[in-house]
Amino acid sequence: MGKRIIDEFTDLPNAHLRWIARNRIHCNNYKNNFQRIGYKRNKEEIFQLLGNKCSNPNCPIPVEKMDIRALQIDHVKNNGAKERKIYSPSQLRILILKEIRKGSKDYQLLCPYCNWVKRYIIKKEDDN
Question: What is the pTM of this model?
C-alpha cells in the first residue's frame, strides 16, 4: 500500500471526492474543454439548421461579406430574456437546438446590424 496523504481533504468520506478536491485544476480544465467542444458543436449545428446567413431579407450586408462568427441567434418572439432567466447558457443552447430540430420557427439568425435595428424598433414601439 502507498503512502497515506494527510491534508485538508482527508476528512472527505468518499475517495473519489478526495481525489477531485486534490486535483481540482486538472478536473476543471478537463470539464472546461469538454464544455467548450459541446458548445461549439451545438452552435455549429444550430447555425446550419438556420441557414448560416442573416434571416433579414433586407439585410444591407452582402452574404459574401458576412462573417459567420458575427451572426447571432435571435428569438423571433423577443422572449430571450425570459429564457435566459430560467436556463443556464448551456441548457439554453441545447433547448434551442432541440426546438429547431422539431421545426420551431421561434429562432432566427441575424447579423449584429439587423439585430440592433430590430431592438431599436421594438424599444421605440414599447415607448409609444
Answer: 0.72
